[in-house]
Design goal:
This protein is α/β, with parallel strands linked by helices. It contains ten helices and eight strands. The protein has a single domain, classed as CBS-domain (Roll). The strands form two sheets. The chain has a four-stranded mixed beta sheet with strand order 1-8-7-6. It has a four-stranded mixed beta sheet with strand order 2-3-4-5. The N and C termini lie far apart (61 Å).
């Protein structure tokens, strides 16, 4: 049964003293780093999806288990129809819908409070390929978006969502909260915040 596999010879580690960290391999990301560094590319990582019929609290649990703050909503034919974020579920949107429609919170489904794809803004893969993290940060700061989808064209000109960029991923990569960046008045101040690990 296991004939195609082989035992590997394990090594003694008593003479190993050091741990490698990513900063020793890659230069730390900055505002001038390529925007592609913060894009979740669906060629490499599958999008986390949810049915519009799922209850909002179940959707929130699904987000937590997948370590994401946004889900792509698909219909019964797996077509992209919108997105829902943790903020949508945890905020006032769900209760407002429940009250307006005279139903309990437990009856509110993803499709009731999601953002339909016609409401979602995106960037093309070409734009992102030619941009820096600073460009993305400025764009998202200006629009107030926490997530931006990235669109490209497949065979025969079929448009598809190629990936997503999230404010939280940018914050994590630069080790600076987006809220602190919003307080900065100039790009020079933002660069100073990044250089000093979140302090002005």
């Amino acid at each position: 049964m296991f004939q195609e596999f082989r035992h590997l010879r394990v090594q003694d580690t008593s003479d190993v003293d050091h741990l490698l960290s990513p900063t020793q391999v890659h230069q730390p990301s900055t505002l001038r780093s390529p925007a592609l560094e913060v894009m979740t590319d669906f060629i490499e990582t599958a999008p986390v999806t949810v049915s519009g019929q799922l209850g909002v609290d179940e959707a929130l649990e699904w987000m937590k288990s997948q370590h994401v703050r946004m889900l792509f909503v698909v219909d019964d034919r797996d077509r992209f129809v919108g997105v829902i974020t943790a903020r949508d579920i945890a905020g006032t949107r769900v209760m407002a819908y429940a009250q307006q429609n005279g139903i309990a919170r437990a009856e509110v489904q993803v499709r009731h409070v999601m953002h339909g794809k016609e409401q979602i803004r995106g960037l093309t893969f070409e734009q992102v390929s030619d941009a820096t993290i600073g460009d993305l940060m400025l764009t998202m700061q200006g629009s107030g978006d926490q997530h931006v989808v990235v669109i490209d064209e497949g065979y025969a000109g079929v448009k598809r969502v190629r990936g997503v960029i999230s404010a939280s991923d940018i914050s994590r990569l630069l080790k600076v909260s987006f809220e602190i960046m919003y307080e900065a008045k100039t790009f020079a101040e933002i660069e100073k915040i990044v250089a000093h690990g979140g302090e002005l």
